[in-house]
Amino acid sequence: MACRFHFVALLLLLVFFSLSSASASATSGHSSGGNATATATLRPELKQRRIRALLSKLNKPSVKSIESPDGDFIDCVPSHLQPAFDHPKLRGQKPLDPPERPKNYNSTIPGGSRADAVVVQAWHATREVCPEGTVALRRTTERDLLRASSLRRYGRKPARRSTRRDSTSSGHEHAVGYVNSEKYYGAKASVNVWSPRIGDPSEFSLSQIWVLSGSFGNDLNTIEAGWQVSPELYGDSSARFFTYWTTDAYQETGCYNHNCRGFVQTTNKIAIGAAITPESVYNGRQFDITLMIWKDPKHGHWWLELGPGVVVGYWPSGLFTHLAHHARMVQFGGEIFNARPTGSHTATQMGSGHFPGEGFDRAAYFRNLQVVDWDNSIIRASNLKLLADHPGCYDIHGGFNSHWGTYFYYGGPGRNVKCP
């Protein structure tokens, strides 16, 4: 009888511990689940904090703000407070005065000049101007940051993962003319402006000048300027004036426009990142802009002009390694990013979206291609080589004549029967 009693007592004790353990496990499970919920609710809050911190870095106190008809806000920021001067190498400095332009600056190909042309941006329609002593900066909004695939890489091109510029695996595709037989100290060209269709919001299409030095591996230095359409970056399909730079092949340094510290703006008339208007019309009026990048022989900085006549600002030579001295290559042309969202080639267009064979009024072009030589003189870009990564998608044809100097037509529709 006593044995049976002890057995029953032991059994009851085991059941008690079993229930206690289960209860503890359940309590622990609820506690863990509560922590997971708390973590989940913290993530949006953390993202919001990061967004607010980034906006405070990018948007500086302004003395005046202009609301553009296209929804942009242009902030008139005191020139010495712009983002560039947050850079450790530039802190405490003020913008420099523009240097003299290169020799032969006013030389143009007969018939190729557009002396009456004026670069207009959408915000100019308000007829408001930024005061002297300020620079016109496009305001970055929370919506801009929320569209970005990564806050850490906001305002940067998708990284290339290859040592070859024309690598298919990188997603970047080009149709370009280039020179690489000398030391270069700048470049100049006119390009007509379009608004090519973008196949996926994460993709872009641009037309620009590249000034390059270093290898296409890890130490490539580039300076870039032109027009681009990028729904992810700007939230629309307008062609926008942009700048770019990198010192490590697009990996960790550099960015578009003022999205990181570096480019020093000196003008209150042009806002980098703002829409250009008007745009070229297929089989109709063509509108082009003139871009010039040149190295100041005295201080070594790389200056940018958006023609005719507006000096936009400069990239300080201290940002660079190879380009602190000179460029080894200059490229002109188009680039798209192909994310292959459906597994096939993107339908993102380059240039006008039409092949170069269609010619004037229909295809995109670069004309009057020039470079700046060792003597700080502008000369014709001779010995131009043409390269299209995928001619069935985007092609390039060029030549020389007395009207346009060195020129080429380029671009294409992207996905088509020759570009599956």
From TrEMBL:
Region span, Disordered: 84-112
Keywords on record: Signal
PROSITE patterns: NEPROSIN_PEP_CD (PS52045)
Pfam families (alphabetical): Neprosin, Neprosin_AP
Residues making up the signal peptide according to the UniProt record: 1-24
Keyword Lipid metabolism: no
Protein name: Neprosin PEP catalytic domain-containing protein
Source taxonomy: Eukaryota, Viridiplantae, Streptophyta, Embryophyta, Tracheophyta
